[in-house]
Amino acid sequence: MNNYPHPIIAREGWPYLTFLVIAAILVTIFAGFAFALPVWLLALFVLQFFRDPPRIIPQNPDAVLSPADGRIVAVERVPDPYVNRDAIKVSVFMNVFNVHSNRSPVDGKVQSVQYFPGKFVNAGLAKASMENERNALWIKTLDGQDVTSVQVAGLIARRILCYVGQGDVLTRGQRYGFIRFGSRVDVYLPLTATVKVAIGDKVSATSTILAVLAKNSV
Question: Does residue 149 have an active-site annotation?
């Protein structure tokens, strides 16, 4: 199954890319390629940053999919401050070379969306989870289990985008947001979930399974 409602280049990047390409062309025409080279390189960087390729969605309905590309920086038991429970937190750190489109980790209904202003420390640090600007999506799965997906801004990231609200129904792999220029996503899971990744693993949004939820009768 492939879920991808947007073009290969994320729509969030179109204004930046359009501006830079036009600027590079004008500088090339009026000043020469040597002067325009830095602008062309910046446009190339923006192009790779805002790439948003389609992904194949694993068919296991109990799988919790990675909401972001990046590297696992935390797997630990912690309190989930957004749902008031003990949980397993799996954190994905995105550097500026990762895809920054965020996808739903599970099928379910959005119970709440909570935004918190905050700092912009390095998203790879543990304290970023609670100190940085962040946006928490509490999702209840079809069999009643709670999964919280938290977009966390980073040192360079200054803009968290979330396109869903309370009551919306999400499917696994559905694109729901974007974070610009380096960031992190924390996923809080039930204690009964079986984690399938370890610290240091590289993961891909949607195609990597972070964990498998235990069967739960509604």
Answer: no
How far apart CA 58 and CA 10 sit, in angstroms, is 22
* pLDDT tens-place values along the chain, 218 residues long: 444 455 678 888 888 899 999 999 999 999 999 999 999 999 998 888 888 888 889 989 999 999 999 999 999 999 999 999 999 999 999 888 888 889 999 999 999 999 988 776 666 667 767 778 899 999 999 999 999 999 998 766 557 889 999 999 999 999 999 887 668 899 999 999 999 999 999 999 999 999 999 987 45
With a threshold of 0.70, does the pTM exceed it?
yes
Distance CA 54, CA 56 (A): 7
Helix (H, G, I), strand (E, B) or coil at 125: coil
Which position among 183, 204, 207, 217 bears the catalytic label?
Answer: 183
The β-bridge partners of 203 are 70
Q: Distances in Å between the alpha carbon of 216 and those of 74, 167, 190, 196?
A: 26, 22, 11, 19
Q: Are 55 and 103 in contact (CB under 8 A)?
A: yes
The reply to whether CATH 3.40.50.150 applies to domain 63-212 is: no
Q: How far apart are CA 87 and CA 203, in angstroms?
A: 21
With tokens 């918190």, the residue in question is: 116
Domain limits of the chain?
11-49, 63-212
Residue 71: C-alpha distances to residues 33, 105, 116, 118, 172 (Å): 37, 16, 24, 23, 20
- Contacts (Cβ under 8 Å, ≥6 apart) of 152: 123, 128, 129, 132, 133, 134, 179, 183, 184, 185, 186
